[in-house]
Amino acid sequence: MKRALLLALLAVATPAAAQPLRVMTFNVRVPVESDGVNRWEARRDLAARTIARTRPAVVGTQELHQRQGDDLVRRLPGYRWFGIDRRGDHADEHMGILYDTRRLRLIEQGQFWLSDTPDAPGSISWGHPYPRMVTWGVFERAKDKRRFRLLNTHLPYRAEDEAAREKGARLILAKLDTLPGAMLPTILTGDFNTTPDSATHAVLSSRLTDAWLAAGRRGGPDKTFHGFKGIPDRRIDWILTTGFTVRKAATLTDHRGAVWASDHFPVVADLRFGKK
């Protein structure tokens, strides 16, 4: 019953010209053999089906390795992905962005690092152990030529990294004014590794709207990280927007027995261009 209700929530019942822009954020979890029954090879089909059944126009992923991105687009006709990894190549984690080429045209793309030297690949500042970055793209929707911008990130994970997460959030907001498409409706997807009562969320929500909180309708649990257990304990995966009205949002709990699409539940939101 819950799955049927969620599918009904996600169903698009509006005319084609008025269809919203559907966006997903999805931490796909790195491919490691120690995940056992939930290793990537066991769940990649399920991860692809999770995307396919909800048909987002664009997906911001985190922890994506190149072979995972390639595996997904092989299973998702019409989709492509782009991005470089956090060290500036393709051997490590990407903040890869997948998009449906039948609905969107990629106009421009790029990346920057969350550090004191944001143009330096692999750069680290503020005391956390791994490079953190943002991948961005400017898109044009095929059916109505509307353009928008999406930024995708993954903030530091340790409890003691809140100050670094806050600095990263401030840098992202500053970059909104300098990246291409500064006047366009904008989406920020990510695994923020902190909760909505944090200073990081307060910084971002000073300018961006949390889609989960703003949605007219919501489905699924509010929390998103579950560690392959199916019982989430924190809402750390967010979609934030400006220049859009959020129609609905849903947290997706796809699994096949003990196999889950990821250790995070992906989140989707339907967005309408413009504000109420």
From TrEMBL:
Transmembrane segments: none annotated. Residues 24-264 form the Endonuclease/exonuclease/phosphatase domain. The keyword Ribonucleoprotein does not apply. GO terms for molecular function: endonuclease activity. Residues 1-18 form the signal peptide. Keywords: Endonuclease, Hydrolase, Nuclease, Signal. PANTHER family: CARBON CATABOLITE REPRESSOR PROTEIN 4 (PTHR12121), ENDONUCLEASE_EXONUCLEASE_PHOSPHATASE DOMAIN-CONTAINING PROTEIN (PTHR12121:SF36). This is Endonuclease/exonuclease/phosphatase family protein.
